[in-house]
Design goal:
The complex is a heterodimer. By secondary structure, chain A is α/β, with parallel strands linked by helices. Helix content of chain A is 31%, strand content 23%. Chain B has two domains: 71 residues, no CATH class; 205 residues, Orthogonal Bundle (MetI-like fold), CATH 1.10.3720. The chains are: A alpha/beta, B mainly alpha.
C-alpha cells in the first residue's frame, strides 16, 4: 500500500475521574495510509472516539496521553502541549465531522459565517473571495441556492442539511485527514446513505484520507478500505474490508459480525454478545475479551496476546493464532456473509 | 412583528386595568381612621366633611369611574395626605431624577464589572478567579445587604473624608451609595453569565469550532460569550426602567431625596391617590420592560421570530 500519513506507536491514554484513573487507550499501534478510508469499529466505550481525539488534541481536560507517540509529518503529536502547536494541526491538517449535526453548529451564526471562519483561518480568504469560495463549497456538499442559504441560520436547515454544512466546514479547511466521528448515527436511514455518498465523493475530489468511527458495520461495508476492530481501548484485529468481513480471526470480531441484524433469521432472536465490556478503571490481565468469550483459552486469562500476522495487511491480537493453540472454527452464521455479502454491501 | 406588539400592548392594558382596579378597591377597604391624624378629637361633622371631600362617600363604582375618567384626561390628581394638595406629578418629578441618575450609573457599573467577572469565572472554572468570584457571590447573597451597607457607609466615608449623608453637588458623595447599590447586581450578572457560559462551553459546537482551529480566545468571545448573553439580555430593559423606583435602603441610609420607599410611605399613610398613581407607573414599567426584553431577545436571537414560521428544508 502507499505511504503512511499518520502512525501511532504504543499509544496509552488515561483519564482521571473522581480520583480514579481510567486507562482508555491501552497501547494502540496503528498506521493510516495516505488516501485510504479506514474504519474504526467497536462498541460504545471501546475508545474509538478518544483515539482520534488525541490526533487533534481535543481530549477533555481530565484526559492525557500517558505514553507512546503519534507521528504525523515528522512531528510527534503526543508531545504537543500548547494551543499554538495544536493550531498548526486542527482544521488545517486534520478536520473532524461530529456525530450530532443538530448541536454541532453555533445556533446564532449564519452558516456562511461558520464556514467563512475556517476559510479565513486556514486560507486567509476574506470578503468577496471568501463568499465565492463558501458558495462553491456549499454546492460541493449538495446545498442548492448557496447565495441565499449561506445567509441562513442552522435552525433553518434540516438534520441532513446541517450535517452537509458540518462537512462543508471540515472540507473548507482543505485538510489532509478527515475524521468522521459517527457521521450518520444521528440521521435517519435514507439520509445516511446520502451523507455517506457525499463523503465518498468529497474524499475523491479533495484527495482526503478518511478515518470513520462507527459501530454500524453496514456503514463500514459501504465506505471502508480497511477496518480496525477496537475492544476495551485496544485494536484487536485490523485488515482490509474483505479480510475482516470474509475471514475474521478474532472471537470478538466473530461476535460482532454475528450480531449483524442482516444475518439474523426472521422470527429468531438476534445474536448478542454476553456480558459487559471490562471496567477500564481496573488493570486488565490477559485478553480483555476473554471473560465474554465462551471459547476462551486458559492463557487468555493470564497473558496478553501479541499480534499475529495473517497476511501483509491482516493482523490479529489473539492466542488462537499461536501454533500451539487448538483449532477453533468461526461461528457457522458468518458463512452467510460470504453468500449474502452482496446484500450487506448494497445496504 | 407589529401585530405581535399590538397584541402584547392590548394584553398589557387589560393587565393594567386589573391591577389598578384591584388596588383601588383594596385601598377603599381600609379603616377610615387612616385618613385622619387625630380622629379621636375630630367631631363627626368634620370627619364626614373630610370623607366627602376625598370622594369616599360616593358608591364604589362611581369612585372607580371618576378615577378612570381622570386618568384618561392625563390627570393623576393631587396627594391627599403625603403632601396634602400637591399635584402628584410634581412630587414624582421632584424625586425621580436623582433615583434615575443613581440607578443608571449603578447599572452601568454592575454591567461593567459583573460581565467581565462572570466571563473570567467561566473561563477559569474551578480555578483561582472562579473561586474568588464564587466567594464574592456567596457573600453578597448570604449576608443581609444592611450589614455591609453600613460598613461601606461608615468606613467608606471616613476613608474618603466625606460626610455620611448625601450631597448631590459633590462627586465623591456619589461613590459610596452607587457602589453599594451595584454590589447586588454585580453578583447577579456574574453568577448568571458564568452559568450560561459554562453551559455553552460544553456544547458540541464549541468542540467543532476547536476542531476547526479557532483559538480558545476567539471561541470564548465570538461564540460562547454572545450566545450566553442572549438569555440575560431579556432582563436589561426591566432593570433599566426600574431604576426609577430607587433603592429603599441605600436612599434612606444616605438621606437621598429619591423615590426609594415612597410607595411604602404613601401606603402606610393611606394616601389613596398617590398609591394609585405609583402603582400605575410601576406596573406599566414592569409590563413595558418585559415586552421590550422579549423584543430585544428576538432581535438578537435569529431562532425567535414573531412572523409566520418559515419551513425548514
Amino acid at each position: 500500500m502507499s505511504e503512511v500519513i499518520l502512525r501511532t506507536e504504543d499509544l496509552n491514554v488515561k483519564f482521571s475521574l473522581r480520583g480514579r484513573v481510567l486507562h482508555a487507550i491501552r497501547g494502540v499501534s496503528l498506521e493510516v495510509y495516505k488516501g485510504e478510508s479506514l474504519a474504526i469499529v467497536g462498541e460504545s466505550g471501546s475508545g474509538k472516539s478518544v483515539l482520534t481525539k488525541t490526533f487533534m488534541g481535543l481530549l477533555d481536560q481530565n484526559g492525557w496521553v500517558d505514553s507512546g507517540s503519534i507521528w504525523f509529518e515528522g512531528n510527534d503529536l503526543a508531545q504537543y502541549k500548547t494551543e499554538k502547536e495544536w493550531l498548526t494541526i486542527r482544521g488545517k491538517k486534520i478536520a473532524m465531522v461530529l456525530q450530532d449535526p443538530m448541536t454541532s453548529l453555533n445556533p446564532l451564526k449564519t452558516i456562511g459565517k461558520q464556514i467563512g471562519e475556517a476559510l479565513e483561518l486556514h486560507q486567509g480568504l476574506k470578503g468577496d473571495d471568501a463568499n465565492k469560495r463558501i458558495q462553491e463549497i456549499l454546492l460541493d456538499v449538495g446545498i442548492k441556492e448557496p447565495a441565499r442559504r449561506m445567509k441562513q441560520y442552522p435552525h433553518q436547515f434540516s438534520g441532513g442539511m446541517r450535517q452537509r454544512v458540518v462537512i462543508a466546514i471540515a472540507v473548507a479547511c482543505q485538510p489532509d485527514i478527515l475524521i468522521c466521528d459517527e457521521p450518520t448515527t444521528a440521521l435517519d436511514v435514507t439520509i445516511q446513505a446520502q451523507i455517506l455518498g457525499l463523503i465518498r465523493d468529497l474524499i475523491r475530489k479533495y484527495n482526503l484520507t478518511c478515518i470513520y468511527i462507527t459501530h454500524d458495520l453496514g456503514v463500514v461495508a459501504n465506505v471502508a478500505d480497511r477496518i480496525a476492530v477496537m475492544y476495551a481501548g485496544d485494536i484487536v484485529e485490523i485488515g482490509t474490508s474483505e479480510e475482516i468481513f470474509f475471514s475474521p480471526k478474532h472471537p470478538y470480531t466473530w461476535a460482532l459480525l454475528s450480531s449483524l441484524p442482516q444475518l439474523g433469521v426472521k422470527g429468531e432472536e438476534l445474536f448478542s454478545i454476553r456480558g459487559t465490556p471490562p471496567n477500564l478503571f481496573n488493570e486488565i490481565k490477559g485478553d480483555a475479551f476473554a471473560p465474554r468469550n465462551p471459547k476462551a483459552l486458559n492463557i487468555d486469562f493470564k497473558e496478553r496476546p501479541p499480534y499475529f500476522d495473517i497476511s501483509d495487511t491482516h493482523k490479529v491480537r489473539c492466542w488462537l493464532q499461536d501454533p500451539r493453540a487448538p483449532k477453533v472454527e468461526p461461528p457457522q452464521v458468518l458463512e452467510r456473509i460470504s453468500t449474502e455479502g452482496g446484500n450487506l454491501y448494497e445496504q | 412583528m407589529l401585530k405581535y406588539v399590538g397584541k402584547r400592548l392590548l394584553a398589557a392594558l387589560v393587565t393594567l386595568f386589573i391591577i389598578l382596579t384591584t388596588v383601588f378597591v383594596l385601598m377603599r377597604q381600609m379603616p377610615i381612621e387612616g385618613y385622619f391624624d387625630n380622629i379621636d378629637k375630630a367631631d363627626q361633622g368634620v370627619i364626614d366633611a373630610k370623607l366627602h371631600q376625598l370622594g369616599l362617600k360616593d358608591p364604589m363604582h362611581i369612585q372607580l369611574l371618576n378615577f378612570y375618567k381622570n386618568i384618561l384626561k392625563g390627570d393623576l390628581g393631587v396627594s391627599n395626605r403625603y403632601r396634602t394638595g400637591a399635584p402628584i406629578i410634581d412630587i414624582i418629578a421632584g424625586k425621580a431624577p436623582i433615583s434615575i441618575q443613581m440607578g443608571l450609573i449603578s447599572m452601568a457599573l454592575s454591567l461593567l464589572l459583573g460581565i467581565p467577572l462572570g466571563a473570567k469565572m467561566a473561563r477559569s472554572k474551578y480555578k483561582f478567579w472562579d473561586k474568588i468570584g464564587t466567594g464574592f457571590i456567596v457573600f453578597i447573597n448570604a449576608v443581609p445587604a444592611a450589614v455591609y451597607y453600613i460598613y461601606i457607609q461608615s468606613y467608606g466615608s471616613s476613608m474618603l473624608k466625606i460626610s455620611m449623608l448625601f450631597d448631590p453637588s459633590k462627586f465623591l458623595n456619589w461613590v459610596l451609595p452607587v457602589f453599594s447599590m451595584s454590589l447586588g447586581s454585580i453578583a447577579y450578572y456574574a453568577m448568571w453569565l458564568r452559568r450560561y457560559m459554562v453551559d455553552e462551553l460544553n456544547k458540541d459546537y464549541v468542540q467543532l469550532a476547536k476542531a476547526k482551529g479557532v483559538t480558545s480566545q476567539d471561541i470564548t468571545m465570538a461564540h460562547v460569550f454572545r450566545n450566553a448573553f442572549v438569555p440575560m439580555i431579556q432582563y436589561i430593559p426591566s432593570s433599566l426602567l426600574f431604576t426609577i423606583s430607587g433603592s429603599i435602603y441605600v436612599e434612606s441610609l444616605y438621606s437621598i431625596p429619591g423615590m426609594g420607599g415612597l410607595l411604602v410611605d404613601v401606603i402606610t399613610r393611606q394616601d389613596n391617590t398617590m398609591v394609585q398613581a405609583l402603582v400605575m407607573i410601576y406596573a406599566s414599567i414592569g409590563i413595558i420592560g418585559m415586552l421590550l426584553g422579549d423584543l430585544l431577545m428576538a432581535l438578537i436571537d435569529p431562532r425567535i421570530s414573531f412572523a409566520k414560521k418559515e419551513g425548514v428544508r
